[in-house]
Design brief:
Elements lengths: L2 E2 L1 E4 L15 H14 L3 E5 L5 H11 L5 E7 L2 H11 L5 E8 L2 H7 L9 H20 L5 E6 L6 H13 L4 E6 L6 H14 L7 E6 L6 H10 L4 E4 L13 H10 L6 E2 L7 H12 L20 H9 L26 H11 L6 H18 L4 H14 L4 E9 L6 E9 L2 E9 L2 H13 L4 E9 L8 E9 L2 E9 L2 H30 L1
Helix pairs in contact: 1-2, 1-10, 2-3, 3-5, 5-6, 6-7, 7-8, 10-14, 12-13, 13-14, 15-16
The structure holds manganese (II) ion.
Amino acid sequence: MSDKIIIFDTTLRDGEQSPGASLNVQEKVEIARQLDRLGVDVIEAGFPVSSPVQYEAVERIADSVEAVVAGLARAVPQDVETAYHALKAAGKYRIHTFIGTSDIHIQEKFRDNRYGKSLEDKRVSIRRMAEEAVAFARTFTDDVEFSAEDAGRTDIHYLAEVLEAAIAAGATTVNIPDTTGYTMPSEFGAKIAALREMVSNIGETVISAHCHNDLGLAVANSLSAIQNGARQVECTINGIGERAGNASLEEIVMALKVREDFWDVHTGVRIEEIFNTSKMVSAFTGLVVQPNKAIVGDNAFSHEAGIHQDGVLKNSHTYEIITPEVIGATRTRIVLGRHSGRHGLAVRLRDLGYHPTEEELENIYQKFLDLADKKKEVFDDDLRVLMGDEIHRQEETYELESFHVSAGTNALSTGTVSIKMGDQFCRESAIGDGPVDACFKAMDRALDTDSTIESYRVRSVTAGREAQGEVIVRVRSLDRVFTGRGVSTDIIEASVKAYLHALNEVCRANQDEEAVLAAAS
Ligand code: MN
């Protein structure tokens, strides 16, 4: 029997740290349920102490899935205890505590003299904090993971010493993160192999790899770790995450699957759910998958050259090592129309991995009927954006009541918007460079915002002239980037909705921050 590789999914924690990818609680719960269906072993649901929204998301996910739910905690008692409280409703849960172990992390993050004056003294304090946090976490659960942050750049002797202490204190998984995506595959693999030699109690624990993609090597490094004895990998759907992202779950899983002849390991992932999961994460985060992305990119199964097309028609194996059906992408698209009915819609949404409530289903059904009137054929991608739109609609401070534009050749473009805030209406007009700009200016005036637009993108959700347009707007406010999405068969309406959505996100973040400040004071 081959060894099982534990798939630790961190889409909802590290993945959500992608600039502009913030998800609301309900979106996180939907994604978590889909990850459960995908068959991942551990779902890292968030960092509970970091904000009330994170706490709530972890708590809700703990209550909604079968997989082990993990919560992140710095190696300090308050973080560990807060993680426990957020997780305790889960059937199975894991406290994941971490501390920086590289010289640069130790000297910069623990600069304060209370951690010691010299690097040597500080190293002793860090090791003790790791030990104490793990031991404290073990008082709540017997599933505790310890991460030596920036292990990729940590001195191997010190790393071995910290891991040995963490394992002695009760860590059941030790994670070796290449936090900065700095190592080369053979080097990272050698590090894992060396630790297996140097850490005397390593046999009592599972070794995990957590790789970042700054040099495009996250998946290669993860595979090299597996080859050298790691039995857990931490990864995200579509490889989203901080900066250049994390190791991509679908690439690791498919590399192990397609090359079963090469590997003597397996995963518990139901690969036929990969496509739906990728689509859901992309739709909810607004992070579009690059077309040439391995496994889940739009072009991953397209053949352009005549010789290739001819070969694939004769036998797909001539140029394909994976067929789209294997990951749950069908070559023939399923189409709904207005006669499909509420039940047909509900069944299809469920097949795509969504769990709408009765009320949401009713709202989506009304939107679906509108859409079916406009474009006759409704595709899966249309349903995904409707679902994203519906879930986003909740918890919004500003709602669009109406807008009006006037534009044309040799005419001034004007936009008028009416935005509902509670029981008040804010109405403004503006002139702009085209109707979208005019509406955005009117909205800035109405809501008195100081955010700047970093990017604006329109795409057609499906083919055809009646297709829905999806607009993604990225807005910078203070030091952060917020993403707004809007969808409509009218791209000006989609634009207005997207911008308003981004402004709602800004507003939500401000409220969140105020709540943190209020709790701290
Ligand atoms: Mn990370």
